[in-house]
Amino acid sequence: MPTIDTAVNIDDLKRIARRRLPKIMFDFIEGGVEDETGLSVNAQAFRNTRLVPRYYIDTSKREQTAKILGLTFNAPFGIAPTGMAGAFRKDAELFLAQAAHEANIPYLMSGASNASMEKGVKLAPKNLWYQIYGARDRSFQLDLVKRAVDCGLTTIAVTCDVPVSSNRERNRRNGFVRPIRMTLPTILEAMLHPGWVINYYRDGGLPMLGNWEKYAAAGSTADQVADMFAKQTPDASQTWKDLEAIRNAWPGKLLVKGIMHPEDARIATGMGVDGIIVSNHGARQLDNMPSSLEMLPLIRNAVGPDTALLLDSGVRRGSDIVAALCMGADFVLTGRATLYGATAGGLAGVKKAVSILQREIDLVLGQIGAPNLDALGPHYLLETVKAEEERRNSGAMARR
Ligand code: FNR
């Protein structure tokens, strides 16, 4: 079994996280919906992408500085929002924030995080972004926007792909409901992970939803705040008008997370959104969706070259990140990859996940002959190379 120090890839961190967590918790991270087809669709999309290297290009001074939304980061990826991370490891979101700050990459804190944005921004003043879920009481979502302004954040994202809850059968079978229903098999399995169980109960059980505490009655317990959150979200009555209201209330950069249809991308950019996170929520919402990678070129065509496009869902390797950039993304987010790190080893685990991905990106850049991210593009994709060769061949045939 690897340790944080000996882990060589994201899968090693996943193995450590799996060992640490009871099945009921690990399955919440890992699971998809219904038949979980989407998980393999996401993985396969990257596995089916072929990069064609070029040689005799000086790549001795490689660098992966990335620019997005007018900001400069040390890598072309950031950390996607993952709710309730504090339940997997206490203070996980603070570790994610701290690691993002140290690596100079963005961390998009979840709207369902345990740490509050006010705490996160102290650790990552320039690197914290915040993700908003629409709420039935619209004053909450607008207050969250105001808090983001007061915190001095540069960027927020509104998640649009959770109109209703999803059918996560693993969670239902495991009893991942509140209060967590400890069936005998769950208890017996959890006893194999005593470290997590002892810490979880020592720290008071379900951690507080830090950003929502304010909207519950004074003195509410974590369970009461979670109940209130569950009554507010998901909110199936959200429409483009709500996005427009957030746009009007938020002076900074605004992203919409979860857009998959090119027409939705056109509507969003038409209303002044600065960027789109093309995502299928890590295959956690609708099982038979396409992968975000499949939709990316269509969405790039729909919005043109100037809208910032970020992508997540299924990214586990530096080569996945490079492939997404070649296919039209400006930036990539990692959900489970960095969450495995946080769960497996706290701050050291997130730092390890980030450094693994950075190292992999660096090596892939060297392998394909790209000294920096500006050199990337569709010309590295097998599909493009084939199309170009066919075009040349048909031109040569025509000249004969
Ligand atoms: C998520 N995701 C998510 N997205 C979001 O907008 N708000 C949230 O609170 C959450 N919560 C959440 C919890 C957990 C445990 C996971 C794994 C994911 C989705 C997340 O931001 C991202 O879209 C996916 O995780 C990307 O897929 P990969 O990288 O996990 O394959």
CATH architecture: Alpha-Beta Barrel
User: What is the count of β-strands?
Assistant: 10
The CATH topology is TIM Barrel
* Lateral strand order in the biggest sheet: 3-10-9-8-7-6-5-4
Gross morphology: globular
> Could you estimate the helical fraction of the residues in percent?
40-55%
Question: Over the alpha carbons, how many angstroms does the gyration radius reach?
Answer: 21 Å
Distance between the termini: 63 Å
What top-tier CATH class fits best? Alpha Beta
Number of domains: 1
Q: State the secondary-structure class.
A: alpha/beta
Q: Unreliable segments (pLDDT under 50, ≥5 consecutive)? A: none
What is the count of helical runs?
A: 16
* Ligand list: ligand FNR
Please summarize the sheet with the most strands: 8 strands, parallel
Beta-sheet strand percentage?
A: 5-15%
Mean pLDDT metric: 97
Which homologous superfamily in CATH is the superfamily?
Answer: Aldolase class I
Would you list the SSEs in sequence order as H and E?
A: HHHEEEHEHEHEHHHHHEHEHEHEHH
How would you sum up this structure, described in words?
This protein is an alpha/beta fold and 400 residues long. The protein has helices spanning 10-20, 23-30, 37-47, 92-103, 117-123, 138-151, 169-174, 184-190, 194-202, 222-232, 240-249, 262-270, 292-303, 318-326, 336-368, 382-399, and strands at 66-68, 71-73, 77-79, 107-109, 128-133, 155-159, 253-259, 275-278, 308-311, 331-334. It has an 8-stranded parallel β-sheet. Strands 1-2 form a two-stranded antiparallel ribbon. Helix 6 packs parallel to helix 11 and helix 14 (318-326) crosses helix 15 (336-368). It is globular and about 80 Å long. Bound molecules: ligand FNR.
